[in-house]
Design a protein that fits this description.
GO molecular function: calcium ion binding
Number of helices: 3
Number of strands: 93
Subcellular location: Membrane
Helix content: under 10%
Shape: flat
Distance between the termini: 140 Å
Largest sheet: 9 strands, mixed
Pfam families: Cadherin, Cadherin_CELSR2_9th
CATH class of the largest domain: Mainly Beta
GO biological process, one term: homophilic cell adhesion via plasma membrane adhesion molecules
Protein name: Cadherin domain-containing protein
CATH architecture of the largest domain: Sandwich
Oligomer: single chain
Number of domains: 9
Radius of gyration: 64 Å
């Protein structure tokens, strides 16, 4: 397979490929398997795949099967290696049809999807299909001409479906009719010339319920000439010069756009540099070759036109340099739009942004932010470094059509500080086809008379689309309900026309589903539009008789008003158009029949006489009440039937016959005969009386009644029969007597009263019990009537008396071993030859309650969780009883047994033991129950069974401390790590449910104590000093997940005498003032020795060691309280030094008595 490089006119084809393609768009997974079809050619018009055009990078994973006409996946697709996604594949097919060659080049836009795949949208082509068709001529130098009105070729074979209707636009040279393209006027083809036209068609695709109508547009070029590469090249080169068609797009698609790398430049340049100073070299990349890849660079100031005079770019190499000396104080920032343009056709461009900052690099470091980012603008964000604005949320044109962003650019200058500038960015949201058309009404209802002429408008369907442009252009089509093609909807206007006649009688109402499809790519459609066309009836149907001609018979003696026949006609119309009335035609005076003009019943209007007239032939007419009146006629044939009014008469009133009693059955006795004067009368005979025991029978034969012997005669029973014979014609009758005398014979056999006997006997009856007496009778006498009984088979359990027929038991019976016996008993007389009869005796053994119930197990064991709800099933016991009926029917009960003090019940029928109350394993861990299986016999028998139910533990009990609060006494100065207490909680659960973990949850901050998680041992982590802190309060928690309990621990330190008393030197100054009138001398306690011991448990002892020999100061040795001696109550000054000892500590203090006069 080779790749062509012509600038061809590309023919887009509308196709479907393995459910992947819809209107040229192929969606495949990155993980698509081998042989997944990507593209293919239309096979309906004898097309062959000629060439495939695809990007070079697709050669790794795409292959072509020319014979099958497909392009398929051959290897794994890796999105990171795709140079473009989607990418385009073209298939070139050579098609031949009706003398024309058609060049079909189909375009497939292939979208690859996967985790690492990115897609971009592509624009919808102007037309759905483009075709180039060349008419082959036999002469290379003479041009061919087509006369006006002549057909060129069939369009349908080249379209993806059957065209329902097409219309030619943009050309007066052609028109479409009945599937072919015709020339309007005589057309002579010119060499190397293509005529162009646009064709708009509604195409029917799919089959059956999946059929749908889709609008398509085709751009067609038609010419004359050979279908050779050279000639095609000339034609297509000319076509490429036009602005229409895919040619120009194909040419542009070859020229790729250049790309800047990077898309944004930020540079700094120092001010005061001379003109021509290099700034930056711009670099864009174009993958095209030749002129299409040669680039030219341009720059243009974005915000301030003065910047254009300060910088220049070399158009060939992209080098940017200064034109003049720059002054940062005049303008410090310059922003340019940089454009790179290639020299391809058409010329492609790429743009970038270029920032010049006249400051130092720090001053030129620009950060961007959006100032007004609140409200609807919060869907955008800006890269603070690059200034690239991106969306961070969904934008909806139908909600907000345009945004205005205020962007601020800040440099990072430090002296004199950062500078900023703002710019307004206007963002216009382009329309996306995200809204389906909406019908103006949920259901359209229109009434159309059934005689409306075709090609008339009956309804206008409207739908609107919130999108814009081509996305909002709505096309209408009929999806379903138009099975007979009687309606047409204009795809552009939505006007619905009647295109063929309606018939109210065939279909009174049509429900048509309309699809409104917009012009987006891919299009969105709404299929909820319903149109109800109600067909109005017109009087266009004459009445039709359900049967013609009508035939009826009637007896001549029926009464007046008797209904004979119901004449019925139907009218396919409705209302008054179908309401009928009837009348008789072709009647004579005194006509004996009339008709009910509304119901159509014909009745007798006068007495009938068959002997006078036995046949009538007349007509009936049915007419409707429509306008104009319509009617129909039918004929009626009426036959009068004869009435039987004559009695049959026997030719002989009495008959006398003789017959031997051993005459064979079927022997003829006599033939009787009677005559009836009525016409067509049939006389039948029967024996009405005297036929004792039905010994005779009579049959009608050749007009007479033949009496024959039906059963054997018995002389001993009947010696004469007097038969009464009746002759009847159905309504009238006559009788005659037949006397038959019987002669004697004797033959009888024993006869049992029944051929089968059934008796019952209890299984506990003793041996020799008489079960039943069987007897037979014999109508003979003597030995011929003496009967002997015997059993045909030997059954050891029973015997029969040969003379009396009494059946007795010979062994004990057991119902559980055998429930019934069948005996064949024969009664034989003693005549010659002997005759006998046989009967059958069925003996049913009745069950007696002689078996107790038996459990399937000796004992039962069950387990149940203690938290199960009431009525939970624990275990099921089962017992059987060999007896039957009520004797073998077993029920279960705890009555008389043990039900766990009412904690359990047992279902009487199923034996299921269920809980009756909530269980608690901690109270009762195991139950020993006893149940009984009791039958319903009389007396009832029962059997006990033991049931052991083990209650499984559920963690339903939290750990429990002995008390909520504990006091723990700990001596201070205990060594670190000493176990000061053992915390213990109990859990009534068992196993893992009873495992307890301990932890301190409060009061241990900072961490003073440590609690072992499993043992509960509480240890001190630091030195405990009573004088620092005398008590600690912690909260401990015992956990048996998920249940917890807490307790408060008061850890109280016990003081130790580890501190000496403290007493500093002190002075007591006493100033006494004595007069003749008063004295201020204190007589009570004046103070206390200022001694202190940190150990509160210590009792201090105070004493004077020296200096108080005169007892000037009185000291309480226990409390340290001081009083002055009365000896000091004078005016003499005194100073004394004393030494006091406190619990062994000695301190000196100065006692001074001052003179109050000084």
């Amino acid at each position: 397979m080779h790749f062509v490089k012509w600038d061809l006119l590309l023919i887009f084809w509308w196709c479907e490929l393995v459910s992947l393609v819809h209107c040229y768009t192929v969606h495949i997974s990155e993980d698509a398997g081998p042989r997944t079809v990507v593209a293919g050619v239309e096979r309906g018009a004898r097309c062959t795949l000629d060439e495939v055009l695809a990007p070079k990078f697709t050669e790794r994973f795409l292959e072509t099967d020319a014979a099958a006409g497909i392009v398929f996946v051959s290897d794994s697709i890796k999105c990171p290696m795709l140079r473009s996604n989607p990418f385009t594949v073209f298939t070139v097919a050579d098609c031949t049809d009706s003398g024309y060659n058609h060049l079909l080049t189909s375009q497939y836009d292939v979208h690859v999807h996967g985790r690492n795949c990115s897609n971009k949208r592509i624009r919808k082509p102007q037309w759905d299909v483009e075709v180039l068709s060349l008419f082959s001529t036999h002469s290379h130098h003479r041009s061919e001409c087509h006369q006006a009105g002549s057909a060129l070729f069939a369009v349908g074979g080249l379209l993806p479906g059957a065209p329902i209707r097409c219309k030619v636009t943009n050309s007066r040279d052609f028109y479409f009719s009945e599937g072919d393209l015709f020339v309007s006027e005589t057309l002579c083809w010119r060499k190397d010339t293509l005529l162009e036209l646009d064709l708009l068609c509604d195409v029917l695709t799919g089959n059956g319920l999946n059929a749908e109508v889709n609008p398509i547009s085709i751009h067609w070029r038609v010419g004359q000439g050979p279908f050779r590469q050279g000639h095609l090249g000339k034609l297509l080169e000319k076509a490429a010069q036009s602005d229409s068609g895919i040619v120009s797009r194909r040419r542009r698609s070859i020229n790729s756009s250049p790309q800047f790398q990077p898309p944004m430049y930020q540079v700094s340049v120092a001010e005061n540099k001379p003109a021509g100073t290099p700034v930056v070299v711009l670099k864009a990349v174009d993958v095209d070759e030749g002129e299409a890849g040669r680039l030219e660079y341009f720059i243009e100031a974005l915000f301030d036109s003065r910047s254009n005079n300060l910088f220049a770019v070399d158009p060939a190499n992209g080098a940017v340099s200064t034109v003049e000396v720059l002054d940062r104080e005049t303008k410090d920032t310059h922003v340019f739009r940089v454009t790179a343009v290639d020299h391809g056709a058409p010329r492609r461009t790429a743009m970038a942004t270029h920032h010049h900052n006249g400051d130092a690099p720090v001053n030129g470091n620009i950060l961007y932010r959006i100032i007004n980012s609140n409200g609807s603008n919060d869907v955008f964000e800006i890269d603070s470094r690059s200034g690239v604005i991106r969306t961070k949320g969904l934008v909806d044109r139908e909600q907000v059509e345009a945004y205005m962003l205020l962007v601020e650019a800040n440099d990072q200058g430090r002296d004199p500080g950062p500078r900023s500038a703002t710019a307004t960015v206007h963002i216009v949201v382009e329309d996306d086809n995200d809204n389906a058309p909406q019908f103006s009404e949920k259901r359209y209802v229109v009434q159309v008379p059934e005689d409306m002429a075709p090609n008339k408008e009956i309804l206008q369907v409207t739908a609107t689309d919130q999108d814009r442009g081509s996305n909002a252009v709505v096309h209408f089509s009929i999806m379903s309900g138009n099975t007979r093609g009687q309606f047409y909807i204009d795809a552009q206007t939505g006007k619905m026309d009647l295109v063929s006649h309606l018939d109210y009688e065939a279909n009174k109402e049509y429900t048509i589903r309309i699809r409104a499809q917009d012009g987006g790519r891919p299009p969105l459609s709404n299929i909820s539009g319903l149109v109800t066309v109600q067909v109005l009836d017109v009087n266009d149907n004459a009445p039709i008789f359900v049967s013609t001609p009508f035939q009826a018979t009637v007896l001549e003696n029926v009464p007046l008003g008797y209904s004979i026949i119901h004449i019925q006609a139907v009218d396919a119309d409705s209302g008054d158009n179908s309401r009928l009335e009837y009348l008789l035609t072709e009647t004579t005076p005194n006509f004996p029949f009339s008709i009910n003009n509304s119901t159509g019943w014909i009745v007798v209007a006068a007495e009938l006489d068959r002997e006078s007239v036995d046949f009538y032939n007349f007509g009936v007419e049915a007419r409707d009440h429509g306008y104009p009146v319509m009617s129909s006629s039918a004929s009626i044939s009426m036959t009068i039937l004869d009435v039987n009014d004559n009695n049959p008469e026997f030719t002989q009133k009495a008959y006398y016959m003789r017959l031997n009693e051993d005459a064979a059955v079927g022997t003829s006795v006599v033939t009787v005969s009677a005559v009836d004067q009525d016409i067509n009368s049939v006389v039948t005979y029967q024996i009405s009386s005297g036929n004792t025991r039905n010994r005779f029978s009579i049959t009608s034969q050749s007009g007479g009644g033949l009496i024959t012997l039906a059963l054997p005669l018995d002389y001993k029973l009947e010696r004469q029969y007097a038969l009464t014979v009746t002759a009847s014609d159905g309504t009238r009758l006559d009788t005659a007597k037949v006397f038959v005398n019987v002669t004697d014979a004797n033959t009888h056999r024993p006869v049992f009263q029944s051929s089968h006997y059934t008796v019952n006997i209890n299984e506990d009856r003793p041996v020799s019990t008489t079960v039943v007496v069987i007897s037979a009778t014999d109508e003979d006498t003597g030995e011929n009537a003496r009967i002997t009984y015997f059993m045909d088979d030997s059954i050891p359990q029973f015997d029969i008396d040969p003379d009396t027929g009494a059946v007795t038991t010979q062994m004990e019976l057991d119902y559980e071993d055998q429930v019934s016996y069948t005996l064949a008993i024969t009664a034989r007389d003693n005549g010659i030859p002997q005759k006998s009869d046989t009967t059958y005796l069925e003996i049913l053994v009745n069950d007696v309650n002689d078996n107790s119930p038996r459990f399937l197990r000796d004992h039962y064991v069950g387990t149940v969780m203690e938290d199960v709800p009431v009525f939970t099933s624990v275990v099921q016991v089962s017992a059987t009883d060999r007896d039957s009926g009520l004797n073998g029917r077993v029920f279960y009960t705890f009555q008389g047994g043990e039900d766990g003090d009412g904690d359990f019940i047992i279902e009487s029928t199923s034996g299921i033991v269920r809980t009756l109350r909530r269980l608690d394993r901690e109270n009762v861990p195991v139950y020993s129950l006893q149940a009984f299986a009791v039958d319903k016999g009389v007396p009832a028998l029962k059997t006990p069974v033991n049931i052991q139910v083990t209650i499984l533990d559920v963690n339903d009990n939290p750990p429990v401390f002995e008390k909520d609060e504990f006091d723990i006494m700990v001596e201070e100065n205990s060594p670190i790590g000493l176990v000061v207490a053992h915390i213990l909680a109990t859990d009534p659960d068992e196993g893992s449910n009873a495992q307890i973990m301990y932890q301190i949850v409060e009061g241990n901050i900072p961490e003073v104590f440590q609690l072992d998680i499993f043992s509960g041992e509480l240890t001190a982590l630091i030195d405990l000093d009573y004088e620092t802190r005398s008590e600690y309060v912690i909260v401990v928690q015992a956990t048996s997940a998920p249940l917890v309990s807490r307790a408060t621990i008061h850890i109280k330190l016990v003081d130790k005498n580890d501190n000496v008393p403290m007493l500093k030197n002190f002075q007591i100054i006493f100033n006494n003032y004595v007069t003749d009138k008063s004295s201020s001398f204190p007589t009570g306690v004046i103070g206390r020795i200022p001694a202190h011991d940190p150990d509160i448990s210590d009792q201090l002892h105070y004493s004077f060691e020296v200096g108080n020999e005169l007892n000037l100061v009185l000291l309480n040795q226990s409390t340290g309280e001081i009083q002055l001696s009365q000896a000091l109550d004078n005016n003499r000054p005194l100073e004394a030094s004393m030494r006091i000892s406190v619990s062994g500590e000695t301190v000196r203090y100065l006692f001074v008595i001052a003179d109050s006069t000084q």
